[in-house]
Amino acid sequence: MGGKVRYVSNSVSTRKPASSTSYASCPLECAEPHHLRSCPKFCKGDVKFRREVIAKHKLCFNCLNPNHQVRSCNSVFRCNKCNARHHSMLHDDSPPQVTMNVGSSNEIVVLETVVLWLVDDHGIRHEARALLDSGSMCNIVSESLARKLLTRRTKINVALTGIGEGVQ
Questions:
Q1: Given its phi and psi angles, is residue 64 left (phi above 0), alpha (psi -120 to 50 degrees) or beta?
Q2: Could you give the count of Cα atoms lying within 13 Å of 20 in the half-sphere of its Cβ?
Q3: Helix (H, G, I), strand (E, B), or coil: what is residue 88?
Q4: Fewest beta carbons less than 10 Å away: which of 6, 52, 73, 122?
Q5: Mean pLDDT in each 10-residue stretch from start to end of the chain (168 residues)?
Q6: Contact partners, residue 104, CB within 8 Å, separation at least 6
Q7: How far is 33 from 39, CA to CA, in rounded Å?
Q8: Which pLDDT belongs to residue 168?
Q9: How many CB atoms are located within 10 Å of the residue 48 CB?
């Protein structure tokens, strides 16, 4: 017969059984294997420390896993304190700081400002200072902050009048 010859071989699998638990290596380089959410160093740190670890290692702010960001996270879980798309261990309850600036010896000028944290599309926090102006009809940020936040920028041509009535 002129048919094709077929070969059959037996192979041995080197994979671990499905019952064994696999852990991603802890980015804090702990000796024992565990998930980041179970890491003693991570759990003992404050929210700022935890957020810095997540940002430094480019982990997802929602599920704490590598290889994706919160924008593309498939996890159905959300913060159990505020229902936002970040892990509950990354929730920040600290109140915003408000400061008052006074200037000019001839006139008293009081400008309310606040130090705040803005979260970009990847869940990374950026510290910024905002001028609180309840009479303003628009919000303006510096180009450098817009770049950090990865937001779309649109060029517009407007004249701004600032402190001292000078056109900027």
A1: left
A2: 6
A3: helix
A4: 6
A5: 52 41 72 88 92 90 89 89 88 66 58 81 81 72 76 71 52
A6: none
A7: 9
A8: 45
A9: 13
Q: Can you tell me the distance from the alpha carbon of 96 to that of 129, in angstroms, rounded to the nearest whole number?
A: 11
Q: Centre a 10 Å sphere on the Cβ of residue 160 and count the other Cβ atoms it contains.
A: 9
8 A C-beta contact, residue 113 and residue 129:
yes
Tally: H helices and E strands in the chain: 3, 3
Q: What contacts 42, CB < 8 A, 6 or more positions away? A: 26, 28, 36, 50, 53, 89
The tokens for 113 are 């400002």
d(CA 57, CA 55): 6
Q: How far is CA 79 from the centre of its chain?
A: 13
- How many C-beta neighbours within 10 Å does residue 36 have? 26
Q: Which tokens is 49 given?
A: 């420390």
Record the pTM. Answer: 0.47
